[in-house]
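Dear Dr. H.,

I hope your travels went smoothly. While you were away I took the liberty of generating a structure for the chain from your last submission, since the lab meeting agenda had it listed for discussion. I wanted you to have the full record in hand beforehand rather than looking at slides cold. The sequence, exactly as received, is reproduced here:
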Amino acid sequence: PIEIMAERGPETLRHGPMKPRGLTNAHRPAEKPYAVVQLRQDNKLGTLYNMVGFQTKLKYAEQVRVFRSIPGLEHAEFARLGGLHRNTFLNSPKVLDSGLRLKSAPWLRFAGQITGVEGYVESAAMGLIAGRMTASERLGRSFVAPPATTAHGALINHITAGHLETTDARGSSFQPMNVNFGLFPPIAKIRQQDGRRLKHAEQAQARKRAYTARALADFDAWLTLAMAAAAE
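The corresponding predicted structure, in token form, is as follows:
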């Protein structure tokens, strides 16, 4: 929720849903905005616009007050006020196998957000992988998933095997996850060419670059093998 993001600091929102990077005012190209609110057209008539990234649990009256304090929205009429989306997902580590199939009914395969990934790109990636799995199965071919060192493989591993399940009064600890470096198999600490240790910030950046380079190389190798197998 935006109110939770705002509590983290005065700069948080403008580096999140109000990030102005990449936007230029055609009337004042030299003037860079401090922050922006993106409005996305919501109907063909162009009479409704959606405020992008503004999920909130604020009471309706408070939403109107806060949003009308934004320059340009002082006289806005709100056709529908905001609320949090319901996120429905499977407890995948418990109910899905490594092929994204239901353990109790393996003729059912799940794809996309319901498998327990978060984000548009991640959901699309799991849909594509599930599609390749299904096509391979239909054609009588074996399917080897991308290695866990890649983004695709790391997500598959997390939602089917990598999550450590704990339970408490709230139930399962499994929650949808964006792809992040914490899902990848660890890389050894990186040192400078002369053997000296890098500073903490430099070490973090160097390891991220190493994670990325390894993921790209391993994914290219996996894709080459997958394409060769498909051509047989």
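Two observations you may find useful: Residues 68 and 74 are 4 Å apart (CA to CA). The radius of gyration is 23 Å.

With kind regards,
E. W.
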